[in-house]
Amino acid sequence: MNRAPLLFLNVLIVATCGLVYELLAGTLASYVLGDSITQFSLIIGIYLSALGVGAWLSGMLDKELARRFIDVELSVALLGGLSAPLLFMSFAKLSYFTVILFGEVFLVGTLVGLEIPLLMRILKDNLDFKALISRVLTFDYIGALFASLLFPLFCVPKLGLVRTSLVFGMMNAAVALWGTWIMRPLIKGSVQPLRIRGAVVATLLIVCLIKADALTSMAEDQLFVDDVIHAKTTPYQRIVVTRGSAGFQLFLNGNLQFASADEYRYHEALVHPAMAAAAKAPERVLVLGGGDGLGLREILKHDSVREVTLVDLDPAMTGLSKELPILATLNQHAFDDPRVHVVNADAMIWLEDQPACPAGCYDAAIVDFPDPNNFALGKLYTTRFYKLLKAHLTPDAAVSVQTTSPLFARTSYWCVIETMEAAGFSVRPYHTTVPSFGVWGFALARARPFDAPTQTLTGLRYLTPEILGGMFVFSADMARVQAEVNRLDNQVLVRYYEREWRKWN
Description:
This protein is of the alpha/beta class. It contains 19 helices and 11 strands. It has 3 domains: 4-219, Growth Hormone, Chain: A (Up-down Bundle), CATH 1.20.1250; 223-258, Spermidine synthase, tetramerisation domain (Spermidine Synthase, Chain: A, domain 2, Roll), CATH 2.30.140; 262-502, 3-Layer(aba) Sandwich (Rossmann fold). The strands form 2 sheets. Strands 7-6-5-8-9-11-10 form a 7-stranded mixed sheet, with helices on both faces. The protein has a 4-stranded antiparallel sheet with strand order 1-2-3-4.
């Protein structure tokens, strides 16, 4: 029997699984540790170097190559398949999580590095050297392409991280079991022990797959202080809601977005200064981000508002109120207001696609994106983005932007201010204190120079004229520092942000 076509299929599966495990580790690292650029860079470097170590070690194996390949495949199935649940759980329990993370990446990379050379040596009797190298590398790279497409488009949104690792572990186990048949003539002695081990590994992974929800819940319960009451993986992010004695909290990719106990401080500070700073009472308001509806709640308190357009990338986020009655209660059913129009789109692309308004479209804009901890978010803090936004505002419209903490990430904060000014805005920096976050910063801007507002709505829970005036005063430890302008081609803000927040994580 010509085993070559079947073994080339093994190369494809091995390459696909190996890259998926690397992508899983990088995603988990950025999820639980933040600092996505550094983590992904280290993981890629460690994985690639481990492939080299595995290839070097393969030269030390001279006998029973088919048996050794199956042993390695079962090891990859077990270690890679269980990687996501084990890494989740170890993060919550162990202080040396990064050692385990990078150790797991190195071990999987070494084992994957062993697999391809072993398969090539098994195949050498079927093909000449030139055909062998070209075909093996072709299938290897095609496998990498499959993994890079499957992981973001199907695996994460449809399966989740835990199920993804288990499913691909099962694929490795299947390759090992299959190998005991297609390579049977090359295996000396009995193959029953190999098949029994393969069946045990496959059974273990199947059981874990059946219990995947319980494993995910167990891992996330350890990651968060309070009980997890809602968790969902979307094509864009992991949404987790927890609830404790003080209320409930929303986390996106492990990062706290709000706590119900004190979110009103944040959202009143975000919305009302812009509504007060506009030259006329805003009638048309644009909200970018803010899919929880809490900023909407504050905007709709203004009687002048006739229309609000909210643009948020993730439909699962803007639809969360329908799944969580406690959130709908907190945002006062803002999404049910007929004045609100929701658009699920990338805010930057949406702004580019919208026709320009000769006199501007919106009287006020509220920009409430997550912090710029990766390049996808960092682009929403660039001069390009702010110029696009400016083109859709009336000449006397006001904009407020959440801009991270001027105390904990001082350079990042002033980088946003510099960037908005470089885009043509006149900016009034301000800040407030939110117990869940500490001191938090914002930017209030208009196209022309303006005075900071001194009045706001009456009857708010937190914001008063006295508080409003004090928010524009900065202490010495938050005073302006020099920072580069954040542009699409440098994304300096992301580097500032990761460097400054790393010491607080």
